[in-house]
Amino acid sequence: MDHLRIESGAVIPAPGVSFDLYHDLMAAATDRSACFYLSPAAQEAAKTTVYRLKFQPRKLGATTFGFGGLVDAVRDARRLDLSDMGSNLARMVVDSEGLVEGTVGAALDRRYLVCVNVIEQSPNPNSRVQLGTERDALGLPRIRLDWQLSDVERTSLHAAQKVVAAAMQQYGLGELRTDLFDAGDNWTGVEKRANATGALTAFEAGHHHTGTTRMAEDARSGVVDSNCKVFGVANLYVAGSSTFPTLGSANPTFTIVALALRLADHLSTQA
Ligand SMILES: Cc1cc2nc3c(=O)[nH]c(=O)nc-3n(C[C@H](O)[C@H](O)[C@H](O)COP(=O)(O)OP(=O)(O)OC[C@H]3O[C@@H](n4cnc5c(N)ncnc54)[C@H](O)[C@@H]3O)c2cc1C
Questions:
Q1: Engineered SS bond to 4: which of 41, 78, 203, 255, CB 3.0-4.6 Å?
Q2: Does residue 242's CB lie within 6 angstroms of at least one atom of ligand 1?
Q3: What is the pLDDT of residue 197?
């Protein structure tokens, strides 16, 4: 399993509503971030897996091709570097609409928030990590990964964004606009949008792979028992995120360390 990240949707603040605190926090080049979660009750009611949302502040039109040309042209002109002026001007001409949108957005300081969504992957028995036939430089077999997603992730994200949209409306904060609401079962448009940015699928993996030797009550539903011992082998234990039965949406290392300390305590009582 891995949790999945997708940039999708934008919050247009209601008139008079300011997300300045969020802008100040997120615009600074630090690793701080403020995330929103659905409460367990909301999660259950909406039938979603764990969902995490953070906002990325943007100004209207700031990321368009045309406005990017203008920004780069002004920057280069200040440096007296005119080598890219031709291509910068071409970007402004080709995407004149984006140029206007960005210029208006900058002039009026029209801000909105892009939704960066992280959704928990549901455990999927069809996913497999196996030893392949290819060998690495040390002669060890390389792994063959068959990582399968299911509809659960897509429908969870859809439902979670609807909860956020309803909350935004209820508290008069703004409007959440996303192409996911119209996508239904057909994610062709969402996939196309993702492909345009170079992603392989609409979802990006979070680099937090887990669950290959999941903890369970018996060998039918997992690989290790509650003491991280491999079922059926007397002295083989696993320390790592591969024992997670589910993943949640947060980074795994603290939980890995906590489990490793717990395993060390357990092993010290076995000696
Ligand atoms: C780019 C990236 C960014 C990340 N950022 C964060 C973060 O900010 N916060 C966070 O909490 N987590 C983060 N993680 C996740 C975190 O690094 C992993 O979840 C964690 O390292 C997993 O620990 P592990 O011990 O289960 O597995 P691993 O760290 O993968 O350890 C497995 C070990 O087993 C060894 N091994 C494999 N096969 C064999 C074999 N056949 N024989 C002997 N040894 C073998 C490997 O060499 C390796 O040392 C990040 C991961 C990546 C890739």
A1: 203
A2: yes
A3: 62
